[in-house]
Amino acid sequence: TRIATELQVSGKEFHLPAEHAITLYRITQEALTNVAKHAGLPSYVSVVLLFSPGRLTLTVDDDGTGFEADDASSHLLVTQGKLGLIGMRERMALIGGSLQVESSPGQGTSVVARIRLGSDVDHDA
């Protein structure tokens, strides 16, 4: 797409269960696909993975065209054809995580996925 993309990983990295890692990969993939398809001509995309004690946060930001996200209910997303956003939310729910989408016309979009991690995660990896 020739969109300038930045990847930032911060915090003390740790090993994730495979299911969590695959889900985050798919969320990133869908968010970047949405940028390419729907964001117009953004000048940048930022992907940030933040490892913190007991939590992992993935943020994908762009400065594209954005959309009205004030009422991001599942029903509205279906009627607007935004099935990718519903799929991302469902994937996160399956692993006990959450997904937040912030956007407004002309202001870009921010997709934030959060996972709380229990004692089954190897924080020393």
Core attributes:
single chain; 125 residues; alpha+beta; 5-stranded mixed β-sheet; 3 helices; 5 strands; 30% strand
Could you walk me through the main structural features you see in this protein, from its secondary elements to its overall organization?
The longest helix is centred in the N-terminal third of the chain and has 21 residues, at 18-38. 31% of the residues lie in helices and 30% in strands. Helix 1 runs antiparallel to helix 3 (83-94). The chain is globular and about 40 Å long. The protein has helices at 18-38, 74-79, 83-94; strands at residues 4-10, 44-52, 55-62, 98-103, 109-116. A hairpin with a 2-residue loop joins strand 2 and strand 3. The protein is built from 3 helices and 5 strands. It has 125 residues and is of the alpha+beta class. Strands 1-2-3-5-4 form a 5-stranded mixed β-sheet, with helices on one face.
Helices and strands in order:
Elements: E1 4-10, H1 18-38, E2 44-52, E3 55-62, H2 74-79, H3 83-94, E4 98-103, E5 109-116
Helix pairs in contact: 1-3
Write the H/E string, N to C: EHEEHHEE
Total DSSP E strands = 5
Tell me the quaternary state. Answer: single chain
Mean pLDDT: 85
Fraction of helical residues? 25-40%
Distance from N terminus to C terminus (CA atoms, Å) equals: 34 Å
- Major sheet details: 5 strands, mixed
**Judging from the principal axes of the Cα atoms, what is the shape?**
globular
Structural class: alpha+beta
Strand order of the largest sheet: 1-2-3-5-4
Number of helices: 3
